[in-house]
Amino acid sequence: MALLAYLKSLFILQLLMGFVFVVSGLIINFIQLCTCILWPINKRLYRIINCRLAYSLWSQLVMLLEWWSGTECTLYTDQATVDKFGKEHVITILNHNYEIDFLCGWTMCERYGILGSSKVLAKHELLKVPLIGWTWYFLEIVFCKRKWEEDRKTVFSSLDRLKDYPEYMWFLLYCEGTRFTEAKHQISMQVAESKGLPKLKYHLLPRTKGFTTTLQCLKGTVTAVYDVTLNFKDNQTPTLLGIVSGKKYKADLSVRRFPVEDIPSDEKECAIWLHKLYQEKDALQESYKKEGKFPGPTITPKRRPWTLLNFLFWATVLLSPLINFAYGVAVSGSPLLIIGFIIFLIIASIAIRRLIGVTEVKKTGSSYGNPEAKKEN
């Protein structure tokens, strides 16, 4: 075990995995670009193909969580709710406290067969991020600038296109709008006090516009809202760098299912319902802090082999020529070739580190505290 942990910590292995992810991602993005000719001919086929392509990329990240780091994910919910996973269109609400919260969500999507078709309401800046933003673009992910007057037309039209989506999807919403930090929490609670809303201890004040709009546009398509509250055993603070280094975490997810017909259709009443939901999420987090677990029965879905097999396929295809090339450079004795290859490794390292930086809490932006940001709620 100590040897395995040591191997996982080796930078060269992490770099090779990053190389596989980046190069396979570029290949997948190119194939996605080629599939655009299918859109006017057969939109359903275009979507099915892109779901499979997205799965091939995202499952590599899920593989890191499940197989490389061995992170455990336990659900706190009932069997009746689990039986509906992957069999209906839903909106999923997840707290935004951790660097890898999205990865835990993707893991659940993968285990129930909907990773490729999962959706999210994402900030517009992510559209410019190579691989991630480009793949999301072809997947018809809804992007917003978090300025309602600018977003209104784009968000409505993007959501409207998803009404006839052929694959079951989980539409992820981070209603808090940004990751939780103490500084943002203080400002958020000042807003709550000014609006006469109950203060939250473990969450930011939810931004209701995104939720009410998504629910309104997808009504008739989505049948339920899943409220997911995430926490980690032993006060762990997981990071993507920790996952890449093979560090194991223990994630607990409380999942509650709310049928759409039980949620108010009126926008103001729906906003009130969402605020109440976050008060309940806060109570769940308080219970977790005291008891070390969420209330209710537990279910641990088994990891599937497909993420590992998918990664091994790409690693076999891409690493064989890379290793042969590196060997050729080494035995050539050419200083120019050797220096060029070292420069390539440095650039690759920086690029991969910047991609990881997208997930880091300290580097994520927010309009909290920006006096020029227009409040949408």
UniProtKB/TrEMBL annotation:
Database matches in SUPFAM superfamilies: Glycerol-3-phosphate (1)-acyltransferase
UniProt domain Phospholipid/glycerol acyltransferase: residue ranges: 90-212
GO molecular function: acyltransferase activity
Single biological process term from Gene Ontology: phospholipid biosynthetic process
Transmembrane segments: 12-39, 311-330, 336-356
Pfam families: Acyltransf_C, Acyltransferase
Top-level taxon of the source organism: Eukaryota
Keywords: Acyltransferase, Lipid biosynthesis, Lipid metabolism, Membrane, Phospholipid biosynthesis, Phospholipid metabolism, Transferase, Transmembrane, Transmembrane helix
InterPro entries in alphabetical order: Acyltransf_C, Plipid/glycerol_acylTrfase
Family annotation (CDD domains): LPLAT_LCLAT1-like
Family stated for the protein in its record: Belongs to the 1-acyl-sn-glycerol-3-phosphate acyltransferase family.
Name of the protein: Phospholipid/glycerol acyltransferase domain-containing protein
